[in-house]
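Retro notes
What went well: the complex prediction finally ran end to end.
Inputs used:
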Amino acid sequence: MKPALPLLAPALLLLATHAAAGPDDDLLRATRLAASCNPCHALHDHGTAGRKAPAARPDSAWLQERLLAYREQRHPATLMHQVAVAYSREELELIARHWAQSRR
Amino acid sequence: MTARRHFLLACLAAGCAPWVRGESMARPHVLVVGGGFGGATAARFLREWSAGAVKVTLVERNRELVSCPLSNRVLSGDARLDSLRFGYGGLRHAGIDVLHQDVVALDPGARELRLADGRHLAGDRILLAPGIDFQWEAIPALADPDRRGQVLHAWKAGAQTLELARRIAALRDGGVLAISIPRPPFRCPPGPYERVSLIADYFRRRKPRCKLLVADANAEVIAKPDLFRQAWRELYPGIVEYLPEHGLEDIDLARGELRTQLGPLRADLLNVIPPQRAGDLALAAGMPLAGGAWVEIDWLTHEAKGLPGIHVIGDAVAAVPGMPKSAHLANQQAKRAAAAILDMLAGRSPQPAPLLANTCYSFVSADDAVHVAAMFRYSDATRRVEQVAGAGGLSVARSAHEGRLALDWARGLWHEALGPPGARRAKAGA
């Protein structure tokens, strides 16, 4: 049987490091916050409506500004303005960074 | 620093995960029971977010998931049921052990399941996604299981969906269909009204002299009321007759009659959506039930109240005010529970995402859809999830654009639960 540790280490690195606050903590929070976007936006295999993945552009500043515009009702939307308003500015920044980094 | 050393230091800082302290280094094992939108999504995220470090076994009695989202379109001939049937190959591909078995017993203390084939499965944690079952005792005529096939619910997509579609297609032009809607909570609050809309659209196109009686136990349409009412008024005049406060008391099977609190309603075809409760497994496992029907949970960890290590998600959960029972919220709860479980396995305080989003699209015609959105946030103060005031909302108007968004949304939910299209394809005869 293969030793378990090599399998465990890379995975739990992500999880375990949030014991200490810092960049890794933000990484974990961002991953979990951004997961709420997936059902509508992950663009796994679809795109009937032409709706783009949150980070179709790997540019966190652009995405962050767009999310804030939804939050502040400054950009027209079908429903994003109804969703984004529930997040804090800091949470939207984390989400924008997550999607931008995940698409690079 | 190597990943191995970093991992060990991090675990030490976190107080040492119990499964690291042990002499053996067996991988932690999570048992997931129920392969619907909640359970399947949780299984996939437990694997993905642990990069395979956690062993995940999914126990699901059926060999395929039939999607409730979009299944009302089968009744109107706008979709084929086969397009909504999916296999579990995508989960196996992700390294999840999938067992098609019934769970006959759950020992919460030992965190052990007994399967119908006699096997025992033990896990470090158990996640239950039992879904819903029906309160048949509320409808005396259907208390006998042998009679239930006479009146279809089609509220779990599958064989009943096909049979109801067949009976609707066989209805003579000029015939009457009556739909009975229970009081909430029930799975998919907009679902009955979407069903009314799509069947009415079918009647308008194919059998314009047919009529649809909507016997609602509620005083008003309980989801997206203005959008549904407007669609019925503008698109289906003379077809939909909405009857509020017509709660079902019984059915006269011989006469084809709904006995409602405001009198009998006769129809050529009946579709009765029964009152609901948490799935049988939750009852069999002795879960703490609110109102005798829904599982009370700790909203931080998703553990059933008083049953540490037994997590519950999805429609079976006793929802907070404003929270519907939906595939989308099952998806969101699945990820929160997966995150909490991984934290707890690593010996840390659970810190799942604080927010849950809900979006539900409903078709009001073959092409046009509407949505409702709601947001929920965990409160450290109340230790509950609460609806976010000022967030969420409804469509401005029905549109074909939202119809396309609805199809994308369903595909997104399928992918999250079951993997990419090639992997999730149902096998013929499986």
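What we learned: Chain A touches chain B through 46 residues (CB under 8 Å).
What to try next: split runs per interface for comparison.
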